[in-house]
Fold each of these.
Amino acid sequence: MSEPPHPLDLIDRERVLQLLTEHLSSAWTSFDSARPKEPQLDQALFVRLSEGLPAAPGDPEASLEDIVSVLDASVSPSRPLYSAYIGSTGLEAGVLAGALGNAYDVNLAAAAGAAEMLENQTIRWVAEFVGYPVGDGAFTSGGMTSNLTALTAAREQALPGSRYDGLSGRPAAVYCSEESHHSVARAVEVIGLGSQALRRIPIDAERRMRVDALADALAADRAAGVVPVAVVATSGTTLTGAIDPLAEVADVCAEYDVWMHVDGAYGGPAAGVPSLAPRFRGIEQAQSLTIDAHKWLGVQKSCSLVMLANSGPLESAFAHDERYMLHAGVAANGVDRTLEYSRPVRSLKLWLAFRIYGADMLRRWIEMTAEHARTLADALRANPRFELLNEPSLSVVCFRDRAGGDMSVAELDEHNLQLARAITDDGRVYLAPAQVDGMTCLRVCFMNFRTTAEQVSELLHVIEELAGAG
């Protein structure tokens, strides 16, 4: 029986790199302007995607073609009229860094040499960008993991030894606004407190955490013997982009000696934009801060980071001793400061973006997308057909079609849900329905640096056209 081919012999490197370059160039070109409709998967490829495990080697070129077809027929946040969720821009710098990072496949779980220097430099750059006095930090797989990392460190500080002994019957609580991201609730469950320990603080007319209610909740828990673990303030809620009053929250946290964490996964980078920075006053007082670079800093998933004001809490929460890996005192390993073990150099994408584009250009891009939201809000406010449901704090706009005003509440909700589906089915614009104060509405979020002012007008035109046809 003949020897099977060696894996390295199956790919003509020069040919596949040429093809890859052509495919990347085509993809980048397609992201420069909106498409009239999203393409559909052809039937032949649909059949191939239903096949079982291949046993024999296949054609690399044909396989690459199938990958491109699948991705082209998938929803991509890189497209300029993608405005449904909080996505990225898919910056070219991230593609280049991602390719090289995957090629070298460095693992930051253990001591990794120069890659650690690059990661630490990128953390310092982000901290400088947003004005945060960082003492420690790490890149993670996403905002969920970043928030979980911060709250694990906060739990260990509030309840020393809990990572070994559990809560041992000690009641504890975490505090956040009613509109904080669900990752906070998941983190509270994972760190062993249980979702019943999450105190959802009411919001004010601007959809921000009410500081008076926060103080009341902390006082009541302290009086009842409940240990406050952390307060999670949000700088840019997912639903409307609201920013909690960070400075006031920091004052309350200082009064009650409670860890303050800021979930800035979406909005945090806007703290680095002069015109928006005043809304983030107090972010520098937080014990920890989460930012997702794969959102408003434009790079691809996944590229999140958690920053702490002080060094030490991450080691207290995660350091351990295993015989197969030397640890602190002999060799520094990232695994002693992070939840994850195998960890790629996620920072590479953001590092290259800073190097290529520069901080000032990123600031201008963020400001531009926030301006798109204000432009859309002004246009909706001036059109009696639509009802604006939030004044945009950042780049999210929620609104609904009144449909002539002759429908019941339930009928109006159903009408707006169907309108959102019609817009998505049309294919020129991608957005999603949402609920604000129980009302079903349309939600637009501008994040993509490719989106132009003309395309904002096009987005509104498509919505008006399809609303009129409904």
Amino acid sequence: MLRTFQAAVDDWEEVCAALGAWEAQHLATDDHEAAKEQHHQWVNELLCWGHLMQRATGQEQFPDKALAARVESRVRHLEDKLALWHREMGPEEEEHILKAAFP
């Protein structure tokens, strides 16, 4: 069962990794509202799978701690993507970020 579970995590991570290239191609353009909606849906679906895997790997008796760490890391990465692309910022926060990035 662990081998099958590891394969499922590998497949999930492969899809998660491919999302970066898709983001560069589709979200870096000026007209990206439809792509942004699609991205939001995909990230949420991948996070659902990630949380499911997190529950399994987070059990104390789960034997593969390295696999558990991979799942945890990938879930954090997806949560960061969600915040980066889909969190609404107020004008003050936008200004603060721009000043920090371009002093």
